[in-house]
Amino acid sequence: MEDIPLDVGQNMFFQHDGCPAYYALAVHQYLDATFHDRWIGRGSLFTWPPRQ
Q1: Which among 44, 42, 37 has a CA at the least distance from the CA of 20?
Q2: Which domain of life is it from (predicted)?
C-alpha cells in the first residue's frame, strides 16, 4: 500500500477474493482501520459470497 498514491488509496476497496469465508475480530478491526469500512467480505458493510 505504500506505493499507492494517497488519493487513489483513499478511494480503494479491499476484497478477500477466492478465499473461504473466514472471520476473526482482529482481522475485521485491521481491515476497518486500514481501509476505513471500504472492504468487502464477511462482517463488512458490503457482503460478498466466498469464492465468487
Answers
A1: 42
A2: Eukaryota
The β-bridge partners of 22 are: none
C-alpha cell at 35: 481501509
Q: Which amino acid is at 47?
A: T
Measured between alpha carbons, how far is 38 from 45 in angstroms, rounded to an integer?
8
What count of other Cβ atoms lies within 10 Å of the Cβ of residue 8? Answer: 8
Average pLDDT over all residues of the chain: 75
Q: Which residues pair with 39 in a beta bridge?
A: 14
Tens of pLDDT along 7-30?
887 777 776 666 665 667 888 888
pLDDT attached to residue 16: 63
Do 40 and 16 meet the contact criterion of CB atoms below 8 Å apart? yes
